[in-house]
Specification:
two-stranded parallel ribbon
Amino acid sequence: MPLRSWTHFFPPYPGPATPAAFRLVCAAVSGAALSLSYTGFYFGIYSWFCIGLLLVVILDARPRIAFACGFVHTLFFVFTSVPWIATVLAIHGGLSRLGGWAILFLIASVMGVLTGAFAWCVRCLAQRGLVLACVGAPFFWVTFEFALAHLPEISFPWNLLGYPASANLALLQLGTITGIWGLSFVVAGYNALLAWTTLAPAPPAQMRATFLSAAAVFIIAVMTIGPRFVPRTSANHFARAVQPNFPEAMEYPADWFKMHARDSKIRSSRATLRCSPFIFSIPSSPELSSGSPRPNHPPTRTLRPLRTTAPFCWTSKVKGFSPTIKFTSCPSANTSPFR
């Protein structure tokens, strides 16, 4: 593989070795950057090139270094995308903060082994040919994602690569046939194309860039124009989501509901007076339940309605520890916050 632009930092194995530390730093950066697709402002664009950066790092590395890069990539990805797990374990699991982060490290390690195996497999294919490795990379990625989501007892199907793409209604239609795995395959395939464009010795760089640009234009066109062709239906149901505000307890005796019957009646009547036949009960959030109980606090304070053309749906988005529930309303529904 001849050296091209910035890729001179990655001379082909077994040529002059790039420092392993530099590869590991790049893998860590790619993992932390990928988490931005799942946190903060949810910039899904990161999912379309961060795995490509990881592939560029590992395709000419020694197999054991490739495995380490995959492991480090996931370690930083987990720490930056789901740090709330450590906090929840500390607040509700009776652990210290250090213990919560230790458990999160174990979770990240299990995921890291799978990503490391992905990197090792791709690197082994690269020894037979760069094109073969880039073609096989999406298949390996989806295989190990599927394994992660179906591990016995410790499966963790969070923040899969296809989730950011599912925010687009046109791309989401692929999920009706393949599930989330099809979207992960598409995103991983574009990342593999990016790695091939960066490292391939032939065809000429301008032609490789044309292939990459054509793929990008096609994906953008589908994401922009495609949603207009997705059939739409009018909403004909109206629902309210109710968030109980019961005090949290470490254990629940047999007479717990009897002890809180009055609170339950107050909240049920409050919800029934204002709700349609459809009512969802959302568990109380840690922020509300970890402190002193506030029986007079309206349980639906954080609820906001969402106008949509879907027949009926509801989603929840957690901000900090206070869930904001969004749900379908009919066109005539009141759009003011529920108090």
